[in-house]
Write a structure and sequence with these properties.
It is a single chain. Helix content is 2%, strand content 38%. By secondary structure, the protein is an all-beta fold. It starts with 8 loop residues before the first strand and ends with a strand. The chain has one helix and 15 strands. Strands 1, 2, 3, 4 and 5 form a five-stranded antiparallel beta sheet that branches. Strands 6-7-8-9 form a four-stranded antiparallel beta sheet, with no helix packed on it.
């Protein structure tokens, strides 16, 4: 049945060809609960589509491990709840690709996750967030690039080196989480 929502994040596991189509969106209304977030897994080779699974409100990014095993998900609002002011820290969790069963969520500590990428060669997640950890007390806050060990949930590195808010929320790129904005080159260990 139609739910009035469309998928806005398409991720492909290149090792299997499986497609993960997910509803994403992180603006403040996502905290109110008016939207339904779902994910489906599609196997284009066989035409098989797994039934939709519910995703957390404010799902921001979905990225497979490129090994056919895991999908990583970033979750968190890009702005405070307009009806209550809550602005929870972002989280990430993993999902088994075969069953779409989620793991427990791990806090990242930033706010406004925008994009996530997985470096399969080095086994790390890289997340770009609009607001760095500690933004509530930093009068010179920046956006943050966070490196995460997906196996342990440990934050390996925090780099407050960019201003992503001007190119996302305050520009014409209103649906920024539906567009991949973070790319990695594993060989040179660089991202853009």
């Amino acid at each position: 049945p139609a739910t009035g929502r469309t998928v806005s994040n398409i991720s492909v596991d290149e090792s299997t060809g499986d497609v993960f189509a997910t509803t994403t969106g992180t603006m403040g209304p996502c905290l109110i609960g008016f939207a339904f977030y779902k994910m489906v897994k599609i196997d284009p080779a066989t035409g098989t589509v797994l039934p939709p699974v519910s995703m957390p409100e404010c799902t921001a990014a979905v990225v497979p491990d490129q090994k056919g095993g895991t999908v990583y998900v970033a979750d968190g609002a890009a702005e405070p709840n307009p009806e209550g002011g809550q602005f929870p820290v972002s989280e990430y969790f993993s999902m088994d690709q075969a069953t779409l069963t989620p793991s427990a969520a791990q806090p990242v500590g930033t706010r406004g996750p925008a994009w996530m990428a997985y470096d399969a060669a080095h086994g790390v997640l890289v997340e770009a967030s609009l607001y760095e950890a500690g933004v509530e007390t930093d009068n010179n806050a920046m956006s943050e690039i966070t490196v995460i060990d997906p196996g342990t949930g440990q934050v390996l590195s925090r780099q407050s080196v960019a201003n992503l808010a001007n190119s996302t929320m305050f520009g014409s790129n209103f649906d920024f989480t539906s567009r991949q904005g973070l790319y990695l080159d594993s060989a040179s260990r660089t991202g853009w």
